[in-house]
Amino acid sequence: MTDPVADYLNRIRNAVMARHKVVEIPASNMKKEITKILHDKGYILSYKFVDDGPQGTIKIALKYHPKSKLPAIKNIERVSKPGLRKYTGANELPRVLNGLGIAILSTSKGVITDKEARNLNVGGEVLCYVY
Fold first, then answer.
1. What's the whole-model pTM score?
2. Residues of the chain with pLDDT under 50
3. In whole angstroms, what is the distance from residue 46 CA to residue 63 CA?
Protein backbone atom coordinates (compact mmCIF):
# COMPACT_ATOMS: atom_id res chain seq x y z
CA MET A 1 0.00 0.00 0.00
CA THR A 2 1.54 3.31 -1.04
CA ASP A 3 -0.70 5.69 0.94
CA PRO A 4 -2.01 4.30 4.25
CA VAL A 5 -3.61 7.61 5.30
CA ALA A 6 -5.66 7.75 2.07
CA ASP A 7 -6.76 4.14 2.71
CA TYR A 8 -7.81 5.14 6.25
CA LEU A 9 -9.85 8.10 4.97
CA ASN A 10 -11.43 6.00 2.19
CA ARG A 11 -12.51 3.31 4.64
CA ILE A 12 -14.19 5.92 6.85
CA ARG A 13 -15.82 7.65 3.85
CA ASN A 14 -17.15 4.35 2.45
CA ALA A 15 -18.48 3.23 5.85
CA VAL A 16 -20.30 6.56 6.32
CA MET A 17 -21.85 6.35 2.85
CA ALA A 18 -22.98 2.76 3.54
CA ARG A 19 -24.37 3.83 6.96
CA HIS A 20 -22.20 1.36 8.90
CA LYS A 21 -22.02 1.74 12.66
CA VAL A 22 -18.44 0.42 13.06
CA VAL A 23 -15.43 0.34 10.75
CA GLU A 24 -12.17 -1.58 11.31
CA ILE A 25 -8.91 -0.16 9.99
CA PRO A 26 -5.31 -1.47 10.22
CA ALA A 27 -3.47 0.60 12.82
CA SER A 28 -0.42 2.85 12.65
CA ASN A 29 0.75 5.68 14.88
CA MET A 30 -0.34 8.34 12.36
CA LYS A 31 -3.82 6.79 12.03
CA LYS A 32 -4.15 6.56 15.82
CA GLU A 33 -3.40 10.29 16.17
CA ILE A 34 -5.89 11.21 13.43
CA THR A 35 -8.52 9.01 15.15
CA LYS A 36 -7.94 10.80 18.47
CA ILE A 37 -8.42 14.18 16.77
CA LEU A 38 -11.63 13.06 15.04
CA HIS A 39 -12.99 11.86 18.39
CA ASP A 40 -11.97 15.02 20.27
CA LYS A 41 -13.63 17.23 17.64
CA GLY A 42 -16.85 15.17 17.69
CA TYR A 43 -16.72 13.59 14.23
CA ILE A 44 -16.75 10.00 15.54
CA LEU A 45 -18.60 8.47 18.48
CA SER A 46 -15.81 6.33 19.96
CA TYR A 47 -12.74 4.31 19.05
CA LYS A 48 -10.78 1.35 20.35
CA PHE A 49 -7.22 0.29 19.61
CA VAL A 50 -7.02 -3.52 19.39
CA ASP A 51 -3.55 -5.11 19.59
CA ASP A 52 -4.04 -8.32 17.62
CA GLY A 53 -0.90 -9.38 15.82
CA PRO A 54 2.06 -7.20 14.86
CA GLN A 55 0.08 -4.23 13.50
CA GLY A 56 -3.22 -4.17 15.36
CA THR A 57 -6.49 -2.56 14.30
CA ILE A 58 -8.54 0.51 15.08
CA LYS A 59 -12.29 0.02 15.63
CA ILE A 60 -14.18 3.26 15.04
CA ALA A 61 -17.85 3.77 15.95
CA LEU A 62 -19.25 6.31 13.50
CA LYS A 63 -21.52 9.12 14.65
CA TYR A 64 -24.96 9.88 13.20
CA HIS A 65 -27.73 12.33 14.18
CA PRO A 66 -30.27 10.44 16.36
CA LYS A 67 -33.40 11.58 14.47
CA SER A 68 -32.40 12.49 10.93
CA LYS A 69 -29.66 9.79 10.69
CA LEU A 70 -27.31 12.25 8.96
CA PRO A 71 -23.60 11.47 9.48
CA ALA A 72 -21.37 13.79 11.49
CA ILE A 73 -18.74 13.56 8.74
CA LYS A 74 -20.12 15.25 5.63
CA ASN A 75 -16.84 15.09 3.72
CA ILE A 76 -13.33 13.86 4.45
CA GLU A 77 -10.69 14.46 1.79
CA ARG A 78 -6.96 13.85 1.44
CA VAL A 79 -4.91 16.95 0.63
CA SER A 80 -1.23 15.97 0.66
CA LYS A 81 -0.54 12.89 -1.45
CA PRO A 82 2.67 10.88 -1.89
CA GLY A 83 3.04 12.24 -5.44
CA LEU A 84 2.41 15.85 -4.42
CA ARG A 85 3.03 16.87 -0.83
CA LYS A 86 1.28 20.04 0.41
CA TYR A 87 3.12 22.01 3.07
CA THR A 88 1.99 25.26 4.63
CA GLY A 89 3.65 27.82 6.82
CA ALA A 90 2.36 29.02 10.16
CA ASN A 91 1.01 32.27 8.69
CA GLU A 92 -0.90 30.66 5.79
CA LEU A 93 -2.75 27.77 7.47
CA PRO A 94 -5.96 26.76 5.66
CA ARG A 95 -9.45 27.47 6.99
CA VAL A 96 -11.97 24.75 6.15
CA LEU A 97 -15.51 26.02 5.48
CA ASN A 98 -14.62 29.34 7.09
CA GLY A 99 -13.76 27.65 10.39
CA LEU A 100 -16.65 25.13 10.53
CA GLY A 101 -14.45 22.20 9.48
CA ILE A 102 -10.94 21.17 10.48
CA ALA A 103 -7.68 20.62 8.67
CA ILE A 104 -5.41 17.96 10.15
CA LEU A 105 -1.69 18.70 9.90
CA SER A 106 1.48 16.75 10.58
CA THR A 107 3.88 19.17 12.27
CA SER A 108 7.03 19.09 14.36
CA LYS A 109 4.70 19.20 17.41
CA GLY A 110 2.85 16.06 16.23
CA VAL A 111 -0.44 15.54 14.40
CA ILE A 112 -2.68 18.52 15.26
CA THR A 113 -5.58 20.56 13.88
CA ASP A 114 -5.24 23.86 12.05
CA LYS A 115 -6.52 25.81 15.08
CA GLU A 116 -3.93 24.26 17.40
CA ALA A 117 -1.22 24.95 14.80
CA ARG A 118 -2.23 28.64 14.73
CA ASN A 119 -2.00 28.81 18.54
CA LEU A 120 1.43 27.10 18.53
CA ASN A 121 2.55 29.15 15.48
CA VAL A 122 3.78 26.11 13.54
CA GLY A 123 3.27 24.93 9.97
CA GLY A 124 3.54 21.51 8.42
CA GLU A 125 2.09 19.01 5.97
CA VAL A 126 -1.68 19.30 5.44
CA LEU A 127 -2.96 15.72 5.67
CA CYS A 128 -6.73 16.13 5.20
CA TYR A 129 -9.83 18.29 5.51
CA VAL A 130 -12.83 17.13 7.55
CA TYR A 131 -16.27 18.75 7.68
1. 0.94
2. none
3. 8
